Amino acid sequence: MSGYIIQRCLQAVVVMFAMSVIVFVGVYAIGNPMDVLIPLDAPQDVRALIIARFGLDLPLWKQYLVFLGNVAQGDFGRSFVYAIPVLDLIVSRLPATLELTLAAVIGAAAIGVPLGIWAGYRPDALSSKTIMGVSILGFSVPTFWVGLILILTFAVWLGWLPAGGRGPVDVVLGVEWSIFSLEGLSHLLLPAVNLALFKLAMMIRLARAGTREVMLTDTIKFARAAGLSEGTIVRHHVLKLIAVPIVTVFGLELGSTLAFAVVTETIFSWPGVGKLIIDSITSLDRPVMVAYLILVALLFVTINLLIDLAYAVLDPRVARSRAA
Amino acid sequence: MSALLLEVRDLRTHFFTRAGVVKAVDGVSFTMERGQVLGLVGESGSGKSVTGFSLLGLVDPPGRIVGGSIRLDGEELVGMPLDELRRLRGRRIAMVFQDPMMTLNPVLTVGAQMTLAIRAHEKVTGVAARERAASVLTRVGIPDAAARLDAYPHEFSGGMRQRVAIAIAMTHSPGLIVADEPTTALDVSIQAQILHEMRELSRESGTALVWISHDLATVSSVAERIMVMYAGRLVEEGPTATVLRDPRHPYTRGLLDSLPATARPGQELRQVPGNTPSLLALPPGCPFAPRCVRASERCVEDPEHRVDAVRAFRCHHPLERAA
Ligand SMILES: Nc1ncnc2c1ncn2[C@@H]1O[C@H](COP(=O)(O)OP(=O)(O)OP(=O)(O)O)[C@@H](O)[C@H]1O
Ligand code: SF4
Ligand SMILES: [Mg+2]
Fold it and tell me: Is the CB of B152 inside 8 Å of chain A's CB atoms?
């Protein structure tokens, strides 16, 4: 098992190097930030000076090596726009996205998995068909549209919840959270629901498909033959048997939402990283883009690693086949 | 307590499929005494498993028991509320299936699965449940059982896995265990062992067994009585020795002739000629008629149950009794 972990970590390092090259070249290709940052009427010598200061006069491969050297010392560079270290900038935005994402993904799983299990357990019940109908809706309606409808309904029309922005924050464990006050939660609710709908639909489908399949197996029949109650069968047998695909999707969703909650963050003016990256693309703020994309890659590599480790815990057969 | 354990009368279990009604079990009657081992044989698709599942009320839709009666210790199981039935399963009547790889949960430890089975009927602490589990596993011949509780099914050999399944079935010392081809999926060398052990266990604990198999040879080595099933009906039933030595139903004769043991060396092994009929479109009268060498015009009428001194059969033109 430990050999497997080491092997996976080495793989992760290689992936990260490859990603850094791709990101660097890709961002370079998007456009020259100096066109945006330096006023067009600036004299040629000033222009050259600024370009040299940012190191943009060097050939691409040299820029990359300089970048790698800096990263090795924990320095991702400074934002062209905000003139503060990129890492600080991203870290300052991270808690907002993190709490939004966690609320959405955990909420989707906590509600979607039980609903999906029920729909798979009683596929012919009216309640199950209703659940599946709702999940189709969750899949097919675009996020931005749902976001606007939510704002119109609950903020504008009913006036129950704020239309956007993040509520007041409390510092807990050195991080700023808005989930510890009612006011903060009221700001969080709509964007979290907006973000959760698609994931909810996905969790329902996944849990339903898994449950339907598992319910037909001899494992369940044998459990029934031993006199286990239906509740026990669902809690102990079904839940564990359908856990692997659900944990996979949960992990990947967590990652992709952390990285790309862009639409929802924009609609609800949520000050998270999604909004930051959109802004940095418009202003060609290269260091922010590079650092962000590399961190996203790191996030996914880490999540994949964790998912694989979770497999080994959830399904002992995996652990054995990989140890071999 | 009377000697009579189980009384099945005119059991009918049908599947309501899109193509039509499949009469998988159609009018099966038999009785069992306490501690008795009863063999149930027949070709694939003859309704053996469905009969077994019916006894536990475990027929899945689109199937259901449409008629008849199953009395366990005098108590009627057909139509019993599901919750009462559940309390019966595992405690008074249990089941072992063909393939332990499919029946045991691959992601739960053996100890966890046994604990669930124990707690289905008894309120005990986790520690007590583990002790019970270990002692039952020891009884079915699993060495070092206490240490093996934390192992997963895939960490056991095929034979050991089936022993675990048997242990789960035996946990509450039920009066009856339905064993649906419990050795078929195992290596030949293990088969005889498991067969022998289950026989011993049933004798020790006074548990009756319904031993389902499509293999006459296997059944004849465990069962005191034997039932031959064809197309959802019992065609012959009686003491194993009698039925094997001296079958009266042409189908039983056919099964016996297909056994390697009765074939002389050099003689070609005979199969029962023809195919299992589709249960959707059974001809009127005796369902075996299209394959039967003794069939006559009379066979378009359903043969009655008939009995001789020791056994029952269902045929218009039975084979003569050997002297
Ligand atoms: N879920 C189902 N839907 C429709 N028909 C079914 C279903 N389950 C069983 N049957 C029918 O019931 C009949 C009897 O099946 P059963 O499984 O009892 O046979 P068996 O004698 O146990 O055969 P085998 O030796 O292959 O296990 C089969 O012909 C099958 O077509
Ligand atoms: S009743 Fe007729 S067809 Fe059926 S087994 Fe007997 S002889 Fe053959
Ligand atoms: Mg069967």
Answer: yes
